[in-house]
Amino acid sequence: MTAVGTDQRQQLAYVATQAADARLNVEIETEGMTLNIGPQHPATHGTLRLVARLDGEQVVEAEPIMGYMHRGYEKLAEVRTYPQVTTLINRIDWLGSFANEVPFILAAEKLMEVEAPPRAQWIRTVLFELSRIANITLFLGDMAVQLGALTPVFMAFRDREFVLNQIEAATGGRFHPNFDRIGGLKDDLPKGWIDDTRQVMEKMRDFCDEFEELVLGNEIFEARTRGIGIVPADVGLAYGLSGANIRASGVDWDLRRDGHEALAYDQVDWKVWTHPDGDSFARYWVRLQETREATHIVDQLLDGLPSGPIMAKVPRIIKVPAGEAYAATENPLGEMGYYVVSKGDLVPFRVKIRSASFSNISITPWLLKGVYVPDIITILASLYFILGDIDR
Amino acid sequence: MGLVASGKAPKPLTKLLNLGRKYSIWMYQWGLACCAIEMGAVIGSPRYDVMRLGVIPFPASPRQADLVVISGTVTDKMVPSILRLYQQMPDPKYVISMGSCANCGGPYWDSYSVTKGVDQVIPVDVYVPGCPPRPEALLEGIVLLQERISNEDPAARWRGDPIVVD
């Protein structure tokens, strides 16, 4: 070791006093900082990049940067035949795959002027609600894990398996069923499926009760979500929010009830849940209630399942007559619609996809203005978007 | 250059090292699309539970990871990030390509924005086919990777063809 020389020591002492003076004389101020979140995070599926300009702990401006998951659906749909398109669009919102197929098939059916037989419509609605449960269950766990509670996500994965098993038993696909056909469904339900599904619905109701206590009753969860990210109803409507995001702002609007598509929702007795607050807590609460309501819808549909064929008469090679049609349904994330333009070919001329997450995320620059950094995570988690649904 | 990297390590020592490495893989998850949910089921679901195989998920950064699972559609916009991730990982590093999209482009084989196979960018050890693969398939891919680790010579890691789970 070498000793520090006297000169050097004096110099260091001088620098130290200068630095101390400088600290005292300068007023406390914060520098602007740019925080980059993403494009990938281990806890997410999909890739969103968020660039936030910060002033201390507060967000001045936040901009979502999309396109990391863009796979070119609308262009690909132009070179796929109608039955092939359903294979693709399964993967738009990968958590509720069956729900993606339904609006496209409905739009194609409108153009072909065929209607699925009642039994097919009812089974469609059952599978639609099952995919809603599978989808939102994961949200319920995922939002808790983003706020730092690890246990709920394990429970969500555990109970979601039961629903996926039922979807797999009926359709053959655990994730991407590709089960919907123009004019009906591919197959009828397997033997014993109805009783099994009833048991699973019982389990999912227990799951909802468990989460109501575990997450919604949690003091920390409430402290981090109540009053965070409030979306007033008029702003939400102006940004085109749909689904549970707008119902959590007190707007009583649900395409399952208000839409005019050929599904069996008008045959059962159910309720649209709304919450007046519009904050992150309300969005979680509404989704939890909707999951429970979906189990009741499935139960009632299974009770009254009509008999009959599951496929209407359609030609083997599907050529859709020229025309334009739009069909939209209330998917787990919100309104999802397909605008199909046909020129009478085997393939659609143009398919415009209106996906819920794209509109839901458009509110983030407005919503994130002025919030604190930890609340960014709460707000993004509670808005609940799926990246495939944004970028397509 | 250490003893192991020089290729002159005695066989029993190599075997012991490989045994240790095999059961302490730190797995970084690069979840991109649908496959990320099945990977999440492998990590988070009590039914599949990857930790019983000695694989630990959620490292704090790629700089601590031994294995990266590329699960989902790799787009051209995403490629620079993946390359950078791979360069950040310390040697010896392994890559599992999960799902048809990461293997070869999958259903987006004719898309203008999708990279047809992550192996164009980084070397892949195990390809797990499926769209998306079941969680069991990913578990099998991990077991195959562990077999590969236990038999390999650490000095010559990139010799040999990738393993395919079938």
Can you describe this structure?
Chain A has 392 residues and is of the alpha+beta class. Chain A has helices at 6-25, 73-76, 82-89, 97-112, 118-146, 151-171, 193-216, 219-225, 233-238, 244-247, 255-258, 280-303, 356-361, 364-367, 373-383, 387-391; strands spanning 32-37, 49-55, 58-65, 180-181, 184-185, 323-331, 334-342, 350-354. In chain A, the strands form three sheets. In chain A, strands 1-2-3 form a three-stranded antiparallel beta sheet. In chain A, strand 6 and strand 7 form a beta hairpin. In chain A, helix 3 (82-89) runs antiparallel to helix 4 (97-112). The mean pLDDT of chain A is 85. Chain B has 166 residues and is of the alpha/beta class. Chain B contains six helices and six strands. Chain B has helices at 3-6, 11-22, 34-44, 79-88, 100-104, 135-151; strands at 25-31, 55-56, 67-71, 94-98, 126-128, 163-164. In chain B, strand 5, helix 6 (135-151) and strand 6 form a beta-alpha-beta unit. Chain B starts with a helix and ends with a strand. The mean pLDDT of chain B is 83. The A-B interface holds A 39-40, 42, 44-47, 67-72, 75-76, 79, 87-88, 91, 94-95, 138, 153-154, 157-158, 161, 174-176, 387-388 and B 28-34, 36-38, 40-41, 44-47, 57-58, 72-73, 75, 77-78, 81, 107-108, 110-114, 131-132, 134.
Keywords:
heterodimer, A: 392 residues, alpha+beta, 3-stranded antiparallel β-sheet, 49% helix, elongated, B: 166 residues, 6-stranded parallel β-sheet, 36% helix
